[in-house]
Amino acid sequence: MADVFRQYHGDSLYLAAFAVSLAFLWWRDHKTRSGTVGKKAAAAVVLSIVFVFNEFAYRIVGRLTDATTYYRFFWMLPVLFVIAYVFTKVFTEGKKRDRILAAGILAGCLVVGTNLFFLNREHVNRPKNIYGLAPDTITITEEIMADWEAGRGKENESPVAAFDMYLEYQVRTYEPRIVWGISRKAYLYQAEHGYDHKKYVRQQHMIAAVNEGIKKDSRTLRRSLDKSGVDYLVIRTAFDMDSYLSEISVLPIAQSENYTLYKVSS
User: Fold this and answer.
1) DSSP string computed for the chain
2) pTM exceeding the 0.70 threshold for the entire prediction
């Protein structure tokens, strides 16, 4: 059970807030002597342990779907609902002082926050970078879409791009129209088995290039790009891949602080 906790709580405070919420429910039940709220807290703990926070449940869900990707949704059910329930109770049924405090905290966030809320110090706006993504992500994403739309792209298709593992998820969050050229399963397989070229062979050549700047047979990489339908490569500028990629007509078209965007020419 400890492994499941560690894997899904990450560096967040959700589990701490979950524990505080349960403790609050018990305290409130003791104070009011109603017995109802305390039973709800106990039920939340028991159901969470039986159906979510244990290895057996994890394995069952893993057989039905990709546990490494989707199990977090099961994890969120008890945690977020209990937290939401408790905070709603506190700020809607609490004393006037509690409601004023809640309103003050919200107002402070809206006033002080910069590029995180609809209202910030400078003006009222819809934030451009609502997820707090890295500047590289925004620059590379916008350059891909600008180039794709300027060329009118392929009819009824979206641009396909290969990124390193770090940038891939960030770009997908910012612009879902961009299709991954390297699948998540290919990354996980390569991380476990290395470059054995027994599975995800085409994608392993791209992983070697975008993640580590490995310069193997350029023609093999080009065949992998063509067969996978990749339109763009995004590689860290420090890898110095310009001359290597130019041999296979993959040319730089834009650059961010840390990455270079390459276009795969026809």
Assistant:
1) -HHHHHHHHTTSSHHHHHHHHHHHHHHHHHHHT-SHHHHHHHHHHHHHHHHTSSHHHHHHHHHHS-HHHHHHHHHHHHHHHHHHHHHHHHHHHS-HHHHHHHHHHHHHHHHH-SSSSSB-SS-B---TTTT---HHHHHHHHHHHHHHHHTT-STT---EEE--HHHHHHHHHH-TTSEESS-HHHHHHHHHH-S--SSSHHHHHHHHHHHH-----HHHHHHHHHHHT--EEEEEGGG--HHHHHTTTEEEEEE-SSEEEEEE--
2) no
